[in-house]
Amino acid sequence: MRLFRFYEALALYELYYRKLDNSLGRQSKPVFIEDRPITWVPLVFHGTSLKALTRILGDGQIRPSKCSQCVSLTELPITELSRLRSLGSRVSEVAIGFPRVVLEAKGLFQPAYLKHTSDVVKEAFRNLPKGYVEIDQDLGALHEVRVPGSISLDDAVWILCSARDEESKEINDPVLLQCQERGIALSYWHPTHQQEMVQEPTFRKEYRDENGHLFSFESCGEFYLPPSLKHEFVAVVGADSREIERMVILPDGNPFNLRFPSTAHMAKKTSVGWAGPYTKIDMAQFFINEIRNQFPVRATEIKTRVQF
User: Fold this and answer.
1) Is pLDDT at 31 greater than 60 in this prediction?
2) Measured between alpha carbons, how far is 110 from 100 in angstroms, rounded to an integer?
3) Which of 24, 32, 61, 196 could pair with 150 as two cysteines, CB 3.0-4.6 Å apart?
4) SS3 content of the chain, % helix, strand, coil (to 5)
């Protein structure tokens, strides 16, 4: 489930950083690269420290602050999350990503910042429950959203961290590695790294039992492919992709059709079991198919942003 949520989010990010015309598939005047096919992001992130992450891992959940009784997150796009790392004395070394569609079911909301409103307005809102209104703050630039109560770490799909070994360039903090062992994707926190990741082809290797059920899985982007595998895939990497149309349910509940790039039609499998290249929507489709095949009843209960 976590892998499906992760790749579904990356598929939407992949479109977020493409030109509007390419995604809508319609004839119109040329647009700037700043135009986006979607105005919301699929993941919301909670910024914290490595020390706090140790407590979160031990508890298995992010507990609400005493002041607001809520957990704070941000809707900033992944390439702009660095704003969290310059918030006064609160240095965020870690950003924990959750699917917005999952947290919507847990009461996700945007707090109202009323610092610059009149005293009459402030007084009208002063007695609302904690967390829904901030009378004397203005953190709107951080695109904050909140969830009442705690958030389970089981719902996390991606952790970004700004700390890594400067020589090896590897993330080797034991707490972060424990999160990775739980199945949460782990990446170095850098805007370029995240944008390149959502746009590069993905390759996978499946491990199945005698009944054909998937029990283990490996994946990596083109950058991390061993040289020998890169040579085997050289004929298909970079080839033209096709477009597949999928309905997307917006946060306000309205449907919206988007065209996603797909390379599943030209994917090949090597002698050692690696297959690809795949786009992020191809990977999301793969995992939702696996869930439907192995857990058909549970699959009907899954609320997805992209309709497969």
Assistant:
1) no
2) 12
3) 61
4) 35, 25, 40
Cα–Cα nearest to 106, from 70, 141, 147: 147
Domain 40-199, what fold? ADP-ribosylation fold (3.20.170)
CA dihedral 232, 238, 239, 242 (to 10 degrees): 120
Long-range contacts of 208-213 (CB under 8 A, 24+ apart): 213/294
Residue 225 has pLDDT above 90, yes or no: no
pLDDT band at residue 30 using 50, 70 and 90 as cut-offs? very low
Closest CA to 105 of 288, 251, 274, 278: 251
Q: Which residues contact 226 (CB under 8 A, 6 or more apart)?
A: none
Domain residues of the chain, as ranges?
A: 40-199, 200-308
Q: Which two tokens stand for residue 52?
A: 């706090």
**Distance, CA of 40 to CA of 103 (rounded, Å):** 14
Query: pTM of the prediction?
Result: 0.86
Instruction: Look at 55-59, 71-75, 268-272, 277-281 and tell me which has the smallest mean pLDDT.
Output: 268-272
Round to whole Å and give the CA distance between 5 and 99: 7
The two beta strands, 268-269 and 61-62, are unpaired
User: What is the token pair recorded at 50?
Assistant: 């490595």
Task: Supply φ then ψ for residue 10, to 5 degrees.
Answer: -65, -35
Enter the DSSP assignment of 145.
Answer: E
Across 139-145, average pLDDT:
84
| 99 neighbors 6 (Cβ within 8 angstroms) | no
Peptide bond into 277 cis (omega under 30): yes
Taking the C-alpha atoms of residue 177 and residue 187, their distance in angstroms, rounded to an integer, is 11
Distance of CA 92 to the CA centre of its chain: 18
CA distance 69 to 146: 10
